Structures are given as C-alpha cells and as structure tokens.
Amino acid sequence: MDSHNLDEFRRRWQEELAQAQAVRKRRRPEAAERRPRRPEVFPGRGEQASGYLALAQGLLEGAGRPPAALVTRTERQDAASRSRSPPARGGAGGGEQLVDQLIRDLNEMDDVPFFDIQLPYELAINIFQYLDRKDLGRCAQVSKTWKVIAEDEVLWYRLCQQEGHLRESSISDYSCWKLIFRECRAKEHMLRTNWKTRKGAVSELEHIPDAVLCDVHSHDGVVIAGYTSGDVRVWDTRTWDYVAPFLDSEYDGDEDEPGMQPYASFVRINSSLAVAAYEDGVLNIWDLRTGKYPIHRFEHDARIQALALSPDDATIATASAFDVVMLHPNEKGHLQIAAEFEVQKLVDYLEIVPDTGRYPVAVATAGDLVYLLKADDSARTLHYVYGQPVTCLDVSANQAAFGVKSLGWVHEGNKILVYSLEAERCLSKLGNALGDFTCVNLRDSPPHLMVSGNMDRRVRIHDLRSDKIALSLSAHQLGVSAVQMDDWKIVSGGEEGLVSVWDYRMNQKLWEVHSRHPVRHISFNSHSLITANVPYERVVRNSDLDGFATHRRHRGLIHAYEFAVDQLTFQSAVPVCRSSCDPMAGHNYDLALAFPYDSV
User: Fold this and answer.
1) Which pLDDT band holds residue 387 (cuts at 50, 70, 90)?
2) Sign, Cα dihedral of 73, 75, 79, 82
3) What is the distance, to the nearest Å, from the Cα of residue 206 to the centroid of all Cα atoms in its chain?
4) Residue 220 burial by CB count (10 A; 0-12/13-18/19+): exposed, middle or buried?
5) Which of 423, 427, 494 is closest to 467 using CA atoms?
6) What totals of helices (H) and strands (E) does the chain contain, helices first?
7) More confident residue, 28 or 336
8) pLDDT in tens, 54-78
9) Which of 41, 52, 137, 236 is most exposed by smallest CB count within 10 Å?
C-alpha cells in the first residue's frame, strides 16, 4: 500500500470513526435486520460499521490477507491480541497495524450492552414483565424488534391486572390490551375528576308513604332499606332502575290494621341474600335470585340486638338477649344453625370475619367484652378491661379493630385497639382522643391504613405500621357517624346530617351535601356513592296536620350518586322525570300526574 492510499484511508477512517462515536454517545443505535421468522431480541452490529468493513476488506486484499478474516468475532479478537505485539517495519506492517486497530474498534462497537446477544422471545418477555408502562413505552422506541416485544399482549394484560382493571377478564377477551389499558386509565382519570368536581347524577331513592326509615345497607350498588311499617325494599342502582321490588315478609297480622307489623330494625344484603330482623325477634332471609318471598324464617325469643351478614357467602349471625346464633348453609345449600354461643352481657356490635373457609368466624362486643366466636370452638374472650366499654367495631380477614372508652380516675384517653385474630393478641393501640370513637373502617381501607371517626368532630387516618396518626381532619360539628376511605379520598358523615368528601393527600375538602338527619350509612366505589340519613325518632308524623314536604323531611333519605354520568349534579334529572309516561297517583291528591316530556 503506497503512502497516498494509506493517508486517504486514515482520513476516511477517522471521519467515520468520529461519526460512529457521536452516534454511540447519543445512544441511538440503528435497528438491525430482523430474522425471517422470529425477531432478534437484541440486534447485532448496526450499519455504522458497513463503511469500516468495506475499507477493511480492501485493505486486507491489498495486504495479502483473506477477506474471511472479518467473518467471526473470534478471529477479530485473535487479530487484536496479535496487534499488541510490536509492529513490523515497513509499509505493509503499518497497513496491518491499522487494520488491527480497526478490528479493535469494531469489537468496541459490538460491546454495547444487550446489543450483541440474541435471546429467545419467551425469555425476553420474562425480562420485560418487570417493567412498568413508562419503561415499556421507552423500550418500544429503541428499535422495531423491541417495539414488538414491548407491545406484547401478555405484558399489557398483566399491567391491567396489577392496576385493578378488568380483573375477571381473561387474556383472550380482547385483541389489543394496550388500547384497553389506555381506555381504563382514561376512564379512571375521568371518574376521579368527576368525584373532585361533583360532576355526575344524584337521585333520591323513592320512599314508602307513612313510614320512617329504620336501617339501610348496601353491597356493590344494591341497596336495601327497612321501615317502621315493616316493609323491606331493594334498589339496584347499577341499572338506574328505581322501581324497586318489595320483599314480602309473610306477616300473619291483620292487614286492615296499619302499623301493627313490627319495625324492620336491621337489614343486610350481599350479592345473593337479603336479610331483615324485626322488633319481635323474627328473622327473614330472601334469595335475590329466586323471588320476593323469604326462603328461611327464624324466630328468636327476644328482640334481635345485632345482625351481621358475610359479604362473601351466606353466613348470617344474630344476637338476641345473651345468645349469638350463626347460620350457615349445609352441603345441600339449606341454611342451618352452625353454632350457638352464650355471652355474659347484651351484644352491642356483631361482625362476620370474611374469607374464613368452611367454619365461619364472628366477632361480637358486649359492653367491655370482645368475643371471638368460631363455629368449631366455644366463645373465647379476645379483650376485656373492666369499665372500658367498646364504642365501635370493624373486622378484616385477619384483624379486628374496635374503639375503647376510657373511664375511671386515671383517664388514659380513648383509643382504638387492633387485634390479630390468628394470634389473638393486641397489635396496636392507636389514638389518644378525648371523645369517643364512634366509627372505624378497617375492611375497606388501603393496606396498612385505617380511618376512624370521633365525637370530637375529627376524622383520623391511622398508620398501622408506625402506630401513629397520619392525618387528622376537623370534619363535623356534632361528631362523625360514618366514614370510609380509599387510596386518595375520604367520605365522612356527621350527626348533623352533613356528607363531606375529602382529598386527604391535599388535606382539602372537595364538596359537601347536607340533609336533615344523621348519616348512618356510607358506601362508595370508584364510580358511585350511597348515603343514608336515618332519623333518631321512629314516630310517624300525621301528614294531614303537617304539610307534605314537612312530613317527607321526617322520614329519612337515601341518595345515590353516579359519577360516571357526564353531567352536573344540580342539572341531573330527578327520579320522577326518568319514569315512564304512565299516569301515577300523587300522595294525598285526587289527580293523576303525567309527564309527556319524559321521552324527550
């Protein structure tokens, strides 16, 4: 090789080497060629080396070396190792030294991480499954091959499941899970915005004439209510159909004498059963899938003081006098008495522990005693301190939380105790408030958190890991009566009838709604909210003496909010305007009401 060709090669080589180094610094390697059948997970050398290979091939031919020397990486490494020895003198030796330096530079280009390896597609999926949505989006911009892997349906299906979207769906239900994931996140953002701005629809569930609301419960959008007239009514707010069926109690009294049927003092509902307890000790159980007539009737000797229904199965627990009875279906599906327990005092609160398997478990409080009731064992005392009554109770799958009122000469402050149901020991003592804890929500709270309400007007978020109060909000003037939280908001109800929604991350109240009676029930999910204002008095006021509106205010209210509807709350149609065009008789009026504009 003459000196002119050598100088020309050195100049072109330095220019292309500088360009290749600039590309490497920007970390934007060009996509390599894909395999015919299966894409290469990590491509090999880019096209930057094509100029080097052409020049090196010409040099090797001029230097008397075969072009096959560039075929494998091993031979280039051998050449690079030989180049560490002192170079030979002469023009040919200088050319071979430049070729060896070129080979070392090519080896450095191949040493870019993960770009010199070819992996099976399944192994690449296992690696990419540890990335979140942002990292998958970045990987999809690297090359065409990485884009195919980053948009695999398995990865986006797992992301949907991890973030709680479409948990009951299988991977074959949709063809593009990345698009489904994007739509779910957009819907979640829209719902959160509607919650913050109170954008949606609100409806008041239709009341029963000449009856006062006694108790309300809901499960997954299905609401049940019991009245002083003995009527039990059910609404399904998921379909916005408020023509609710009456559940027949099969009462044997005289139908011509109104008010003779005992009050429906407690009502509970889950996905399959509805339960109502009456003042005379009768317990009626309905199957929501079969009809409005009860499938089981159980009679107690005394008034039922507490009622609990499992949210997962058909387990029912009742407390009457000093006895606690647990009903559980047998192998044929018929309800039967699974266990009976005798306690020392009258039961105040009763809850069924979820996910207990074959043998149901319940927790009951009676004065200053807390009992752990297992169907396959006798009643066991979980907590007892003389003179410190329990003021509220809630349970989760493995824990129980209850408020304790401190009395005596040494006032230690009212606390919430958290017990492990497996170890049957106290895990945490939370709070040190002057007022009584009136409500606590452990089951619906995020992991390691718990929310409580107190008579000192405050709503508190407790951190179960550090046993400290994470946040305290001054919420209601007459005390907190109901509370629930999720991963970003709190909904609380007060004795004065105020329902407040808080963004506890910002320590800010978003909006509030006021009604006449205390808030006794709050239940919400991502898109709906159910609230119930239950009166203190259960005396029916005479509608002839008072006005119709006045009489209505004394009966209690149930409101259903739907935030998936894209309209303002105060602009939403009232329930009567969503009814059909059929005439219906008005209360205490001798005329028919018709709405021809309903279909507009």
Assistant:
1) confident
2) positive
3) 29
4) middle
5) 427
6) 10, 34
7) 336
8) 544 554 455 444 444 344 445 545 5
9) 137
